[in-house]
Specification:
Layout (H helix, E strand, L loop, with lengths): L1 H6 L4 H12 L11 H14 L3 E6 L13 E7 L8 H11 L1 H5 L4 E7 L1 H6 L18 H6 L3
Parallel strand pairs: 2-3
Antiparallel strand pairs: 1-2
Amino acid sequence: MSVVLMLSQNSTCVRTLCTRLLHSRPLMASDPSCPVETSIRAKLTGALQPEHLEVHNESHMHAVPPGSESHFRVLVVSPCFEGLSLLQCHRLVNDTLKEELSTRVHALAIQAKTPQQWAKDPSLGKSPGCLGGSKGDHTVQQKLQTD
């Protein structure tokens, strides 16, 4: 949490995010067929109040079992990113999704933009195809197991 607090002492969005992260309860997934994606969407919406949000499950592009929720790409357009470096924006997203990243999510590609940046370039980057790297990652199977 100290990383988030160091980002900007006078940023309303950062203070709001810190308060929500400190006082939040785990979110229940509304769609049982994709609980991780639902949780990612809910947490990013609640913490960053995005003007535009896209959450893409790219697990099917990787060497994981069918139906996995382990690889995601997110596009978050939020005024909370105003005045922050790209690294600080990514840290906000990572801190918001800390639980998912420490359990079931193996990879997260982030595009974080301010509304002005989005207005200039409203595009979503594309992920490269899987090179099979997860085959050597012995933690993937453990992360993919459901409770």
